[in-house]
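Appendix B. Extra example for self-study. Work through it before the problem class; the solution is given directly after the inputs so you can check yourself.
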Amino acid sequence: MDALLLSRWQFAITTTYHFLFVPITLGLSIFVALLETCYVTTKRPQWKAASKRLVRFFGTIFLINFALGVVTGIVQEFHFGMNWSEYSRFMGDIFGAPLALEALTAFFLESTFLGIWVFGWNKLSEKLHCACIWIVAIGSNLSAFWILVANSFMQHPAGFAIENGRAVMTDFLALVTNPYVAGEYSHALFAGISTGGFVVLAISAWKLLHDEASRYAFTQSLKGGAIFMAVGLLGVMGSGHMHTQYLATANPMKLSSMEALWETADPAPFAIAADINMDKSRNDTELAVPGVFSFMLYNKPSGEVRGINALQKEYQTKYGPGDYRPDVPALFWSFRIMVGAGGFMLLLALVTTLLAVKGRILSFPLLLKILPFLLPLPFLANSTGWFITEAGRQPWIVVGLQRTAEAVSPNLTACSVWLTLIGFTVLYLLLILAALYIVFRHIQTTTIPDEGRNA
Amino acid sequence: MMELQIIWFILITVLFTGFFFLEGFDYGVGTLLPFLSSRDEERTQVLRTIAPVWDGNEVWMITAGGALFAAFPHVYATMFSTFYLALFLMLVALILRGVAFELHGRHTSLCWRRFWDGAICFGSAIPAFLWGVAVIDLIQGLPINEKMIYTGGFLNLLTPYSIIGGITFLLVFTFHGAAFLTQRLTNRGLIQKAQLFAQRTGALAIIAFVFCLLMTLLKTDLFHSCLGGTALLAAGVFFLLGYRQMFSGHYQSSFILSSLAIVATTLAFFAGLFPRLMVSSINPDWSLTIYNAASTPYTLGIMTIAAAILVPIVLIYQGWTYWIFRQRISPKDCEETH
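Solution. Structure tokens for the complete assembly:
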């Protein structure tokens, strides 16, 4: 493998690692902030005592997750210069700005106020302390916004011109208000809320079964987690739907590849499963529902959707000879895994919410038992989602402007990249294991007795 | 009006100054951690002095990197690809250190604690050393061709001069960290231990600094810049005075002087570089300057407005953090854990 392919693998692996933690940070920060708001505002002694302990309990998990998110994030910022120096030269005028703004507006905010939050329990008033975790939550979500502004440009450039072979910014507002940002950001935010909600739900379910003394507190957190997750998933579905419709104009090649639609069709069918043949540019067999793909895009059972083959021809005229198709089978199946996992999670969240709100959740021990085992689902959906986004723009690093192969640092040797690739992968793995060990131990050993019952 | 490129050169200098001053003592405290005491509760006190602030301090480095990317993308591209393996090593160190701060106190087993103590020490000493190497490499010049691409290998980065630079940074930061600890603890025994280490590393730092100063005089054109030369000499004087104050037990002035020494050193190197950011040793015309490596005036303008608004706000709330945590760390403070 050459330095280019290895660099791509390295970026893919480190980003995937990073995005295991980021959604938890996005969602759990808000959840913990809500919990602490309950603690500050409630008048019921029983809930006051329990919610404070719950803030601490989930706060610890949040902190460990946050630390891993931060350290895997630093690598991302360095990567652009280390492995993708030609990309950085070509795009620096545009891409550097949101990155610097992310550091200035978000990183300082979240890291500084998190420090205050952790060590300031006895130094600040209750309200001020609660405000700190809200600031952390806002900072984390602001950080996601800026990085997705940067990413959106790579998917769908806006507000730029090409000067002396470099992309330069001509309109900062157009960069930030790129409609692609709205789709990506809302989708990522709601995915974070769903993931955070599921983490709370799974842990609470386990505690309910294994720790009778803490039953009151975790019944509450289970209810909160389930509602939070349901809200997140509804948002994920809505924003995903909206973004898919937008892809039809912004990035049709990605859209048709994700659906393995080779030939232009009106109305276009939706393939549930397909045996995709990249060499022959067709599906050897497929199981399709007529008209549904058009319906997804246009809210009516008709409407033309351009196929991969037509787009490939169009791009060859526009950009010169070359293969402009992404890895269709990988995209096709990733999309189905993502949507399947999302739909299943929504069902779980709704059922659990219903049972929890009615106070009947303890009568369904089987559900409580399986919930923790289903926790990989949101991570699967998050990772496949990013895979579609990033693999879907290949062979471009910036769609229409720069190819991935042109972006790699010219002075990199395969040997150095092998070293760093293995180094990061192994180090991250070991750290995740260490963190998981501590988190499991924390969950097992921390009890939240119902102090307020006699009060 | 001042040119935008110059404003950004100054801003980058400010960000690196903030980074070296703030992370300087974090790195120093981290490096000293396993040596100050063998007792776990004492080490916890040492860690507590920086626990609430280290992450915010590290953001100065991240921001400096992001600002380089935004304002001087060619410098960002050339620098980061040049230092590829060195940065890998630094990232490994920073990753371990970041996780160590979080996981360290979450298990009581001695073996667990000792491992993460070691990780914090390694994770602090390595970046301190590597930043010294990098700063010297930048001013000394590197084989950079007309396309702004580094043509050397990993070993070209490690010259005797740059290694001395790395050692100087490490020792100065260690002194700085020890001086910081004397301000932040109540435990007399630990303070005396910190003083002892400050005296030892301070003496070595002075020797290394003098070597570094001579090499800078011989190998670079830093002293062609009046400001650069003056600032570097001033840094030496500040450090000597700080060292003397440490000996006589005037801890606070010693810390202030070591801070000034770090600020002056950073200032000296950037003044010596100006208007370049990376020097080409092959052909001076191929150096990366604030003109040939900069973003467009439009981007620089947007970023100038953003920085003018945001940097003061950051300074205010980071200042507030230090105010909240202004009290010295007592053994009692460490009993409560999150």
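Self-check: Chain A touches chain B through 75 residues (CB under 8 Å). If your reasoning did not lead you there, revisit section 3.
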